[in-house]
From TrEMBL:
Residues 45-118, 134-262 form the UspA domain. It comes from Halomonas heilongjiangensis. CDD domains: USP-like (cd00293). It comes from the Bacteria. Belongs to the universal stress protein A family. It holds the Pfam family Usp. InterPro entries: Rossmann-like_a/b/a_fold (IPR014729), Universal_stress_UspA (IPR006015), UspA (IPR006016). This is UspA domain-containing protein.
Length: 268
């Protein structure tokens, strides 16, 4: 990954994305730029000046690219789709509608992008997650959740990080088990780890959590440092949705670490 962009407007919450972008760019040795989208060409210079003033006290200077386009979602998703380019975005602090947990623009970019986005929510703690030393990927036994695995492997390799598989078992619900009913708890993750070793030549460890999916994941993350969580925006339907859209939104909103989020093409 040669270039990282941070999507920014003139709001305070968008500065969180800049902190994340600085950390990731430093670790990867990548260039860092701010990307901002306005609706009309006449607004470009005013936005550039506003961001230049806003960032004056925020560390070393960062190039600012302002684009006039009627759709910020399409423009930012187009950045993500480029080879060797990453995009960092911050999530809103609003509740309770799931999309508002991450913001309508951010949600729209996630829906359009062909690669994972790097998101950080209101509880992002950059001082505890200055590097990515562990990439944790949430899986629930569905092919949709497991579609994130190749991306998680690529991220672990890019950051020279350890790969960990994460599953949540909802206590007292039969639907919490993988579709193979005879595979119990860590047996499922052990099988995934074997598959990753065979297909990608990478070692992965795993952790099985219990309880409400979002709460269990966030609680687990609260004890860690230098983590990136990787999740798809949709998992299996039914009583348990370990990596379903609403769970992912809640985790992004509450997680202290960055979250790589991706929506598989067949869910768009």
């Amino acid at each position: 990954m040669h270039t990282l962009y941070v999507a920014m407007d003139e709001t305070d919450h968008s500065l969180r994305g800049l902190a994340l972008g600085r950390h990731l760019a430093e670790q990867l040795g990548a260039s860092l730029s701010v990307a901002s989208v306005v609706t009309e060409a006449g607004q470009v210079e005013r936005r550039r000046e506003a961001l230049t003033t806003r960032l004056a006290g925020e560390g070393s200077p960062v190039p600012i690219e302002v684009v006039a386009n009627g759709s910020a979602k399409d423009t930012l998703a187009g950045l993500v789709d480029q080879e060797e380019v990453g995009l960092c975005m911050s999530a809103h602090g609003r509740r309770p509608v799931p999309e508002l947990l991450i913001g309508s623009v951010t949600a729209g970019v996630v829906r359009r992008a062909r690669r994972p986005l790097f998101l950080c929510g209101p509880r992002y703690a950059p001082e505890r997650h200055r590097r990515v030393e562990v990439v944790m990927v949430g899986v629930d036994g569905s092919s949709l959740s497991e579609a994130m695995l190749p991306h998680a492997v690529a991220l672990a390799e890019r950051f020279a990080a350890r790969l960990q598989l994460l599953q949540v078992i909802e206590t007292g619900t039969a639907g919490a088990l993988p579709r193979d009913g005879d595979v119990m708890e860590s047996g499922y993750l052990h099988g995934l780890a074997r598959r990753l070793r065979h297909e990608h030549g990478i070692e992965a460890d795993w952790e099985v959590l219990h309880g409400d999916p979002a709460d269990a994941i966030v609680s687990y993350l609260d004890d860690g440092e230098n983590i990136m969580l990787a999740m798809t925006t949709h998992g299996r339907s039914g009583l348990t949705q370990v990596v379903a859209g609403s769970v992912t939104h809640e985790v992004v909103h509450e997680a202290p670490c960055p979250v790589a989020v991706w929506r598989p093409p067949h869910r768009r």
